[in-house]
Amino acid sequence: MKRFSADGSVGFPHVRVGHRQALYQTPRSSRRLGAFFYGFFMYAEINQALESLRRNGALPCTEWPKGAPVTPRDLGLVERRGEWVRVDQVEELDLVYLRRNAEGRSLEVEIEFFPVVGSTNRILVERAGSEELSNLLLTCDYQHAGRGRRGRNWISPYARNLAFSFAHRSEKDLHELGGLSCVVGLAITDALADLGLSNTNVKWPNDVWIEGNKLAGVLVELINSGAGTQVVIGVGLNVALTDAERMQIDQPVIDLVSCGIKRARNDLLIDVVGKLTSYLEHFENKGFAPFIGAFNAVHALHQKQVSVHLAGKNQDPTTLGRVVGLGASGQLLVETIDGIIELLGGEVSLRPAPVDH
């Protein structure tokens, strides 16, 4: 049995496996932190302008921060008589409501919210390098530089999808954290099932699909602080996309509204986070093994023929095989003509095999 690690080499992985996009070591350089905080305060000016618009119903065009990386039109604003106004109705997240909702469900979660950020994952990863984070939810209405797996951008219109990151402190060693992104995917499908959406599937290692269309994506990043492992879990969930926005995305996508789910974003966020904390607690207590059968049962590609694209220079670029399940560390088991191979995520792309006619 061969094991293909994130860089395509053969061997047993200990760091970049499965969902792990990067393992961050501390401490961080002062130059990198300085650049991070400069970017953070740059977005703070944008958020102050948005707060002024909310209070007054309009914002003079001259008051938009000069040189800002986000334009008013990026946020759905329209210029009228020298002012920026919002004409389309959107449901912005409400921090007071979110905290009250979480407390009412007995969720021990700290919640932070910024209308506009660069990347929620990046903020928490940087903070985890200098402080201990646990049960911290960071969310926003708009990500300017949202990240997906393998460095892809995540397209999300202002206040019409969900984008959040959750910081979790794990007592497990690194080698025990395989399959964590699969657990997160299962938590999302469970939350959506409670809302009546029963036809969701997970797609290894970190997507949620409906009939081959992507509904949600997961990005898990690990930070080794020397005294344990801090985990930052990023989730992007399509709630309402326009046709124009769908055209910008390089794969078939779907959203909740088109599926008949019209749950308020403020409630939907706590729905998902509630399931996530429950699944993480179970994972910490029991490990990944109890989740394997559940994942196989809803895996969109289980027992299907697939095309595997490996990034390693020493491997054939494409391998065909049949998905037979998950291993104990979350690796995907694929039966090929040369035997069973184990896929560990990273620079591995998995798609349904082309059908011959």
TrEMBL record:
Residues 102-284 form the BPL/LPL catalytic domain. The lineage of its organism: Bacteria, Pseudomonadati, Pseudomonadota, Gammaproteobacteria, environmental samples. GO terms for molecular function: biotin--[biotin carboxyl-carrier protein] ligase activity. It comes from uncultured gamma proteobacterium HF0010_16J05. GO terms for cellular component: cytoplasm. The keyword Transcription regulation does not apply. Keywords: Ligase. The keyword Translocase does not apply. This is Biotin-(Acetyl-CoA carboxylase) ligase. InterPro entries: aa-tRNA-synth_II/BPL/LPL, Biotin_CoA_COase_ligase, BPL_LPL_catalytic. Gene3D superfamilies: 2.30.30.100, Bira Bifunctional Protein, Domain 2.
